[in-house]
Amino acid sequence: MRMFGGMRPPRRAPWTMIVASGAGERRTAIAAAEEISRTRTENIAVLLQESPTSDDHAFPVGPVPFNSPISAIAACLLWRPKAILFVEFANNYHLAWWARVFGIRIGIINVNLSENRTRRLKRKPVGRWQFHVIPRYAVQARIHARRLAALGVQPGAICVTGIGMGRFRGDLPEGDAIREDWRERLGLDERTPVIVAGSTYPEEEVALVRVFRQVRERYPEAKLVLAPRHLDRRESIAQALAPDEYQRRSRAQFDENRPIWLLDTLGELKDVYSVATVAFVGGSWIPGIGGHSPLEALAWGVPTAVGPYTGQQEAVVEMGREAGAVTVTKTEAQLLDHWMRAIGDAEFRLDAALRARHLVQAAEGAYTRAFDAIVGR
């Protein structure tokens, strides 16, 4: 299917396509489509690098075309889109090029260009092709606009629209149903402390498990949900844990006697945060990765910790830190303190939830502003 243009449109219409070229941009693409569908009368389609895990969206969701001229041309002819919005970056250069040839409006939304990536692009001019093909950019913050300008993008092509955070899921009508469903799956009651560590890497997992074992000395009923960033590493993670200490989501029902739950399935982390007492977001204790987004945890009002290396998420982490919803931890001792406080202090959890709600709600409209800047009213 991807070779011949990806997903077929369900009907003839002037479509706006939102393209997530990387696995990590899926959440942003879905959230952007949901917001634009609510605020603008548009036919929105979302094309993903990874196959969708459900079809319960009000808009079509399917696979993105291959990065080849045949696939890109086929996608343009199939959809006849009026606009294509790439999420955070554009590595499908055939689709970007042929969209311009066909006169389709294109742009990148939710751009969060880190300082490290900017330096790498300055050293490797070939990696800057997208900045000569993409005519419009909607960036998270002014610092990202300055970095784009340093790479040769004209200031008039850049619009600062803010950080797209989606909706606060804890207040949605389906929020309680999702939470109760996962409590039942995990065999939890409301008093069980649950730590969710998402998008983690090997070096982090060793430390996280070590800290979790210290938590269990005080709270022996505590559970840890460990969600690795790359699912192809599930075997190596299992080898690092005691056989009677963990279980896999993909293999069995929840066993309350095993305190670590290895989330080795795709697309469930965003809902598992609903039962979290406290969370940690990975890729942030290792230099060079830049951290992963804390937004899925914040959307449920969960007290959230990250490590010190969050260059890829600097805008949202700084906003979360200033709002009191995100805590930066540099050592295992600091992480232990954060987890222990969140578990033992109900007022701290309530305050964190209120601050996260305010942060997410205050950011509403970023995707709509990006749509207006690139596509127009």
Task: Considering the chains and any ligands shown, give keywords for the structure.
377 residues, alpha/beta, Rossmann fold, 2 domains, seven-stranded parallel sheet, 15 helices, 16% strand
Care to describe what's here?
The chain has 377 residues and is of the alpha/beta class. It folds into 2 domains: 2-166 and 364-374, 3-Deoxy-D-manno-octulosonic-acid transferase, N-terminal domain (Rossmann fold); 169-362, Rossmann fold (3-Layer(aba) Sandwich). It is 39% helix and 16% strand. The chain is built from 15 helices and 14 strands. The strands form 2 sheets. Strands 3-2-1-4-5-6-7 form a 7-stranded parallel beta sheet, sandwiched between helices. Strands 10-11-9-8-12-13-14 form a 7-stranded parallel beta sheet. Helix 2 packs across helix 3 (93-101) and helix 8 crosses helix 13 (332-344). The protein is globular, with a radius of gyration of 21 Å. The two termini are 33 Å apart. The model has no long low-confidence stretch (mean pLDDT 90).
